[in-house]
Amino acid sequence: SYLAEFLLEKGYEVHGIVRRSSSFNTGRIEHLYKNPQAHIEGNMKLHYGDLTDSTCLVKIINEVKPSEIYNLGAQSHVKISFDLAEYTADVDGVGTLRLLDAIKTCGLINSVKFYQASTSELFGKVQEIPQKETTPFYPRSPYGAAKLYAYWIVVNFREAYNLFAVNGILFNHESPRRGANFVTRKISRSVAKIHLGQLDCFSLGNLDAKRDWGHARDYVEAMWLMLQTDEPEDFVIATGEVHSVREFVEKSFKHIGKTIVWEGKNENEVGRCKETGKIHVTVNHKYYRPTEVDFLQGDCTKARQKLNWKPRVTFDELVREMVDADVELMRNNPNA
């Protein structure tokens, strides 16, 4: 949705693929319709389709004849990829191939530029710190393994057919629009509910997982910049700063005036409010991953130098924006 906004502001006509769903799934782009009430399209046009359906991809690409394609489509939840491993491989891995093949089938190899949403999860069990474009990959989930295939098939199309195709190796990027079952949003939503008296306590998995967290709004600009270069190249996009899940929890609570103190060890650890003595955070093993990624830290020197890109939103600003947005959301609709 941030990318669509960004491109529309630049004067692009944006075509998007939407999966058929029995309930509305366009909440994050509703405001981009010409008439949001009636869902009347302006410069954003939507097509029903799916990354598991080659025929529809060929049809849409042939009809639209785009100048740029951004493949952000994926089953993108790492923990869920352990339960939906085959589907994740089909969408995230083979889906990317279907899109590339569709470009070829439509004869657009020489006219289209292709962006692939690669991921810091490729680094998984990290082989060096920090991670940059030349760091060896070691994925630790079906999601990471599927994205690894996608990464290399993009490189192959670039080298075999001279397609302008790039991989953006983006580290974690968050926002108030993040899905509710991702850890950052789960924290900001829960903290907002606790602030409004709608919730007492919530459970998390590994509190000591460390991530390089940026804002999605900053990162979509980097995607666009990668397609404006003379030569197609892969880029790491990151802040270079590392924070733990624990720290994200503490900062979120601090923003609503609560100090969290930790007690106990491992699965018995709890986060207690210093001011009231109430337990607000517990640990539940069901949120742990079978193979964990302990530490991610990106080095985006190449992007700073070649794309003149740098992150604008700080970690503290990100946390505050997410908590504020969720307080507003829950105040208006306690069931949101």
UniProtKB/TrEMBL annotation:
Family: Belongs to the NAD(P)-dependent epimerase/dehydratase family. GDP-mannose 4,6-dehydratase subfamily.
UniProt GO cellular component terms: cytosol
GO MF: GDP-mannose 4,6-dehydratase activity; identical protein binding; NADP+ binding
Gene of this entry: GMDS
Superkingdom of the organism of origin: Eukaryota
Single GO BP term: 'de novo' GDP-L-fucose biosynthetic process
Function per UniProt: Catalyzes the conversion of GDP-D-mannose to GDP-4-dehydro-6-deoxy-D-mannose.
Pathway assigned in UniProt: Nucleotide-sugar biosynthesis; GDP-L-fucose biosynthesis via de novo pathway; GDP-L-fucose from GDP-alpha-D-mannose: step 1/2
Alphabetical list of Gene3D superfamilies matching this protein: NAD(P)-binding Rossmann-like Domain, UDP-galactose 4-epimerase, domain 1
Organism placement in taxonomy: Eukaryota, Metazoa, Chordata, Craniata, Vertebrata
Ranges where the NAD(P)-binding domain occurs: 1-322
Keyword annotations: Lyase, NADP
EC class (word): lyase
E.C. numbers: 4.2.1.47
InterPro entries noted in UniProt: GDP_Man_deHydtase, NAD(P)-bd_dom, NAD(P)-bd_dom_sf
Protein name: GDP-mannose 4,6 dehydratase
Cofactor requirement: NADP(+)
Enzymatic reactions: GDP-alpha-D-mannose = GDP-4-dehydro-alpha-D-rhamnose + H2O
